[in-house]
Amino acid sequence: MKKMLSVIAVSTGLIMAASTTMAASQDHAHQHDQKMSTQHHKQAQQHPDNHGSDVKRVATQNNKAHHNWRAGNKFPSEYRGVGYKVNYQHNKKLSKPGKNQQWYKADNQYVLVDTTSYAILKVLGL
């Protein structure tokens, strides 16, 4: 009888220790998930090509003035971020940019820009 009580006491202690460890592990995982979610949300607000439903970003973009995109004009600095850059290989109608040239997408138009002077070289409304 004494042995059986000892076994039950030890088993109960082990179960309690294991459940405490699991609870701490789950709490840590929850904190990690919250941190990653917060980081992802911040990235979504900063990345203009995000296809999510970030209302703040959409409202901010819609408030930007639409520019008159013409060859020879200077390409505005607010559109020079990584999120506006376009890889010409993903669109068959875009030509391969030359040295010091980059395609950007702004106001639903593709704009080829000289990256040294930021002069607009070509505008395509595809």
UniProtKB/TrEMBL annotation:
Q: Which UniProt keywords apply?
A: Signal
Q: Where is the composition biased (Basic and acidic residues)?
A: 48-57
Keyword match Signal:
yes
Region described as Disordered: spans on this chain = 23-74
Q: Where is the signal peptide?
A: 1-23
Q: What is this protein called?
A: RcnB family protein
